[in-house]
């Protein structure tokens, strides 16, 4: 099983990338309740009646790594509506010469899952476009959610 993963490099520092990753409201659409930048914090995500989930921040290594454990998920557009339960979202930040690489992996989001096509497409937008823009120009694009279901 291959987990969904994507990566990009930017000219910004690991500190700037980390700050953007933990500013979840700046790049992911929907209603987000709770802290998104504190180890052990729990935040909920909800988009209409299409998606809801709870994320616990289980790793928070400044300028290097952020991990969310996902529970209580509901995806209205798949048969196994709790498909995300037990999965993890991992952000790994590393220096690569004078650039900073961000690697995003949704551990448990695999091609075998019904959500894979829609969810990987949405994550690709939120990570490679919205989050990247938040890092590079200071403005994410979470409002483009209308086109992306996750």
CATH superfamily: START domain
Structural class: alpha+beta
Give me the Rg, rounded.
Answer: 14 Å
- Major sheet strand order: 1-7-6-5-4-3-2
Would you give an account of this structure?
The protein has 150 residues and is an alpha+beta fold. The chain has one domain (4-147): Alpha-D-Glucose-1,6-Bisphosphate, Chain A, domain 4, CATH 3.30.530. 20% of the residues lie in helices and 37% in strands. It is built from 2 helices and 7 strands. It has helices at residues 14-21, 116-137; strands at 4-10, 31-33, 42-47, 51-61, 65-75, 88-96, 99-107. It has a 7-stranded antiparallel beta sheet with strand order 1-7-6-5-4-3-2. Strand 4 (51-61) and strand 5 (65-75) form a beta hairpin. The longest helix has 22 residues, at 116-137. It is globular.
């Amino acid at each position: 099983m291959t987990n969904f993963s994507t990566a990009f490099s930017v000219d910004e520092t690991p500190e700037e990338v980390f700050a953007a990753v933990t500013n979840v409201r700046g790049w992911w659409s929907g209603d987000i309740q709770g802290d998104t930048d504190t180890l052990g914090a729990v935040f909920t995500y909800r988009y209409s009646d299409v998606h809801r989930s709870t994320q616990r921040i289980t790793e928070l290594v400044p300028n290097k790594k952020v991990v969310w454990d996902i529970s209580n998920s509901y995806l209205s557009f798949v048969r196994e509506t709790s498909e995300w339960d037990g999965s993890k979202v991992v952000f790994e930040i590393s220096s690569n010469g004078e650039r900073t690489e961000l690697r995003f992996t949704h551990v448990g989001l695999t091609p075998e899952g019904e959500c894979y096509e829609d969810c990987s497409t949405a994550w690709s937008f939120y990570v490679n476009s919205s989050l990247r823009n938040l890092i590079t120009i200071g403005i994410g694009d979470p409002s483009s959610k209308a086109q992306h279901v996750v």
